[in-house]
Write a structure and sequence with these properties.
There is one protein chain. The chain has 507 residues and is mainly alpha-helical. 79% of the residues lie in helices and 0% in strands. It contains 18 helices and no strands. The protein has helices at 2-49, 51-71, 75-85, 90-114, 135-151, 156-178, 185-209, 219-242, 245-253, 256-277, 280-292, 296-323, 325-332, 340-366, 368-392, 400-434, 443-459, 464-487. The longest helix has 48 residues, at 2-49.
């Protein structure tokens, strides 16, 4: 009987890895789509609207998306646990989640509509600016229905909404609306992209879950749900805030133009971030099922496996974009090149954060309160480091016309250090809880980074257009080849194998 149990566990582990690999393949494809769509938007925003308008837009969106993050009350990741433990119809569970999230979102939207100056601290309120927070409802609905689809291993729904419809809509709309209003075009384009993404996400959701016939809203059930998810909601907000707090701090020390340049760098750096955040929905259901069966060693193996996949991909992307940083930033606009140092630190921060993010995928279910305390502690560290690094610039002779770019780099460096500390603490903590090591780093990464860096220094001697057209693919190719032959084991190569017909049920 023990042999049968071991065989069942092994089969379950293999199925989990297959599901994670299928999600990973979809996410890599989604990354390429995001890259193709993000470049036109940054080009249009930088070259047509300018850094100052982009900075104003960036700060407003920062506030709105933070409110939306709180509005989801942790259900982006907590929904998987609800669906795996609750015996009610799944459509009713998701309806409860959407209802309570919309109730919480109403409070945030009403507050920011009443006090729009928080969204536009360095500029006046124009036209319909104050009604931008209405986007919160669409963002929250999209997050929850995509999490519900991910529970059924349908990552393609997220790719369609987030990697195709939203970025291409904002790019096309930003170009068209520039001729309508150079002042409000970016914000109007953002609203259009959010609404388009919501409807794109709702279509497969309705086919999968259907209409929740017989469901009735319950405030008592909603209050209980909100209370249970509060620690996860704060942890999500802290993790999200750690990627936006830098922009908020910068807005207090630098002009809107510098904020716009930093936002451009942040958008480039956020491309590899999508590789790991999009694993959350697929990793969550796998972890909750293994926790239910007390398969702790399997969780450690899966976290390590996914962590290596993410870091392996992110390090290559960070090198390719960082080494050609001047050319990448000049593509947005000539006055954005000063943000190259900030871009380098932001890309390094994404690599440093990967271990923390995959570790947190398990910690939120095993030790959500302690995980929350760690997250809040790291936010405090980031604030202290950011202010300390900025104040430290006073000891260096820096010309006033470039001081803003140094402040931007200092803020990005503080983010990198704080996320690195978070990765160390959370991986050690999770390892102790699981009784198994969490190993996401492999020696081959060092070889790949070192060799790619050497080639990258030669690539920077090329003209900027050649760096972009030939340099980035060359660097990614060299890095990927080394990782494939020196770093990948057999279980890693499943990431690039097409699913067998029998596996097609894992959608």
């Amino acid at each position: 009987m023990l042999t049968t149990q071991n065989s069942t566990n092994l089969q379950g582990h293999d199925e989990d890895i297959a599901a994670l690999a299928k999600g990973g393949r979809t996410n890599v494809f989604g990354f390429l789509l995001r890259l193709a769509a993000r470049i036109p938007f940054l080009f249009i925003a930088g070259r047509y609207y300018g850094a100052e308008t982009l900075g104003r837009f960036a700060y407003a969106i920062l506030v709105v998306e933070f409110a939306a993050q709180l509005g989801t009350i942790g259900l982006r990741r907590g929904l998987a646990e609800m669906l795996s433990r609750d015996d009610r119809p799944q459509s009713h569970i998701v309806a409860d989640a959407i209802f309570v999230a919309l109730c919480v979102s109403f409070i945030g939207a009403a507050f920011f509509i009443d006090v729009p100056q928080i969204m536009f601290p360095n500029s006046g309120i124009n036209g319909m600016d104050r009604f931008l927070p209405l986007c919160i409802f669409a963002i929250v609905i999209t997050e929850i229905v995509l999490a519900a689809q991910a529970y059924k291993f349908d990552i393609a729904a997220s790719v369609r909404a987030r990697a195709v419809v939203e970025p291409w809509t904002i790019s096309i709309a930003a170009f068209a609306l520039f001729y309508y209003s150079a002042r409000d075009g970016l914000i109007l384009a953002y609203i259009a992209s959010i609404i388009a993404g919501m409807f794109t996400a709702l279509w497969p959701f309705m086919k999968s879950y259907g209409i929740p016939y017989g469901w009735r809203p319950s405030f008592s059930r909603s209050i209980m749900l909100a209370r249970r998810n509060l620690p996860l909601a704060i942890a999500d907000a802290a993790e999200w805030g750690s990627r936006r707090l830098d922009l908020a701090i910068l807005g207090l020390f630098a002009s809107p133009a510098i904020v716009g340049v930093y936002y451009g760098a942040q958008q480039v750096a956020s491309l590899p971030q999508k590789l790991k955040t999009s694993f959350d929905p697929i990793l969550g259901p796998v972890i909750t099922r293994n926790l239910k069966q007390n398969r702790l060693s399997d969780i450690a193996a899966q976290v390590s496996q996914v962590g290596f996949w993410i870091i392996g991909a992110q390090a290559g992307i960070a090198l390719a974009l960082g080494l050609t940083g001047d050319a990448v930033m000049s593509l947005i606009g000539p006055n954005f090149v000063g943000g190259t140092a900030a871009l380098a630190f932001l890309l390094a921060a994404e690599v440093a954060a990967a271990t923390a993010v995959v570790s947190e995928s398990a910690l939120i279910y095993m030790a959500r309160h302690r995980n929350l305390m760690i997250s809040l502690l790291i936010l405090g560290v980031q604030v202290i480091l950011s202010i300390g690094f900025i104040e430290g610039l006073a000891f260096f002779p820096i010309a006033e016309e470039v001081r803003g770019f140094y402040i931007a780099a200092a803020v990005a460096a503080a983010l990198m250090v704080s996320l690195g500390i978070s990765s160390i603490i959370k991986s050690i903590f999770l390892s102790k809880l699981l009784g198994a090591p969490i190993g996401v780093w492999r020696g081959a990464l060092l070889w790949a980074v070192a060799f790619t860096t050497v080639v990258g220094l030669l690539v920077t001697k090329l003209p900027e257009w050649a760096e972009l057209v030939f340099g980035i693919p060359l660097l990614l190719g060299i890095y990927g080849t080394i990782i494939w032959y020196r770093g990948f084991k057999e279980e890693d190569r499943i990431l690039f194998k097409k699913a067998k017909p029998a596996d097609e049920a894992v959608k």
